[in-house]
Amino acid sequence: MHATASTQQRAAAAEDAVMRRYLHRFGPVAWAHAAVDGGRSARTWHYWWHAHLIHVLADAERNRPDPRRRRLLRRLRRGVTLRTLGTWTTPFYDDIAWMGLALVSSGADTRALRRISDVLHRAVDPDHGALPWSVDSPLYNAPANAPGAMVLALTGHHGEAVGLAEWMASTLRDDTTGLVRDGVEHGVVRPELWTYNQGATIGLELLLGEAAMGDEADPAWRHVRRARALVRAVDAWCARDDGLFPAAGGGDGGLFAGILARYLADAATEWADADDDDGETAADAARRLVRRNADALWAGRRDGMFAADPRRGAEATGDDLDLSVQLGAWITLEADAGLERSLTS
Questions:
Q1: Using an 8 Å Cβ cutoff, are 237 and 308 in contact?
Q2: CA distance linking residue 164 with residue 152, whole number of Å
């Protein structure tokens, strides 16, 4: 496909690559292998990666509606039911939360979503005011609390979601950079800065800020301020590398940058009509970051595959064979396509 392809054509090409190389159908069910043949753990089934596969397919369906995709989403959900023996859960609360968001986005499986919401609701530790990473874990981290709070907010536990957002803002925000640190374990803050933690926190604050309805005097407006501040912090973080997101390799890290792109696109859409300088600045930064990284991924595309690092071309070995890497690129390209559609429709 020519380099001047539209954003929708680019996203469709990323979707096609995943469908052709990773997806396997077995009668009424479907799932994806973790890597193409020859990759490490090629036939492994990953719960967390499938949450993002379902979510990005839902993104694609909003951008390019197709009844075949809707049928595939049903097959994939049946695959999750089969692979989890009907529980839809794992011992990891972060994974469960991301699956809950995928179900919300795809608009189905309300019974599974209710189960996930109930599990997350019961798992909030009142002594810490936060969700642990997993069952019996001493780690309370952003990857569990940001998406977990979003699921709770979307399933009738708004007050609890606000509490988790407050815990994150008071505990995980790095005063020097304004970015979100990874978590707290045994009272010690883990200082790692990951792209997906920034993205999920932006998404959470956007969701909770909707209640303000543009009223800066509303207490919920603090969530809007936090989301905008975090977008600006991400912009400053990436400015040192010409706007490119830090790469996190293959494995789970292959999804990190795509998650940030999705929620930056949501922020840019939300603030597209902002009538204040702060909103305009944050929206411009979010749009620019999404487009910069989508363009870099597209430029590095080789034989239909994308690179784990947008600074180079895709390779036929190593990290780039992971499903997560291809999903991460697809999420970014789909975010870019969705953002352009929302701003031009």
A1: no
A2: 10
Most distant CA pair in the chain, distance: 57
Please check whether residue 15 is in contact with residue 60, taking contact to mean a CB–CB distance below 8 angstroms.
Answer: yes
- Between CA 180 and CA 187, with CA 181 as vertex, the angle to 5 degrees is 130
Give me the amino acid identity at 67.
Answer: P
In sequence order, which residues have a C-beta less than 8 Å from that of residue 11 and are 6 or more positions away?
Answer: 60, 63, 64, 330, 333, 334, 336, 337
What is the SS3 assignment for 68?
Answer: helix
Compute how many other C-beta atoms are within 10 angstroms of the C-beta atom of residue 325: 30
Indicate the residue type of 207. L
Per-residue pLDDT tens digits for 250-265: 999 999 999 999 999 9
State which amino acid sits at residue 132.
P
H-only helix segments in the chain? 7-21, 47-63, 67-83, 93-106, 110-123, 142-154, 158-171, 195-209, 221-239, 256-270, 277-299, 323-344
Q: Are strands 181-185 and 139-141 parallel, antiparallel or unpaired?
A: antiparallel
Q: Could you tell me if 91 and 134 are in contact, meaning their C-beta atoms sit under 8 angstroms apart?
A: yes
3-state SS assignment for residue 235: helix
Reduce the DSSP state of residue 180 to 3 states and report it.
strand
Considering the entire predicted model, what is its pTM? Answer: 0.96
**d(Cα 201, Cα 198) in Å, to the nearest integer?**
5
- Residues with Cβ within 8 Å of 317's Cβ and at least 6 positions away in sequence, in order, are none
Percent of the chain at pLDDT > 70 equals 97
Amino acid (one-letter) located at 34: A
Contacts of 32 (CB under 8 A, 6+ apart): 18, 22, 23, 24, 45, 49, 50, 53, 323
Q: For residues 162 and 208, is the Cβ–Cβ distance under 8 A? A: yes
Backbone angles phi, psi at 309, to 5 degrees: -120, 120
C-alpha torsion 106→109→114→119, nearest 10: -80
Question: Residue 41 above 70 pLDDT?
Answer: no
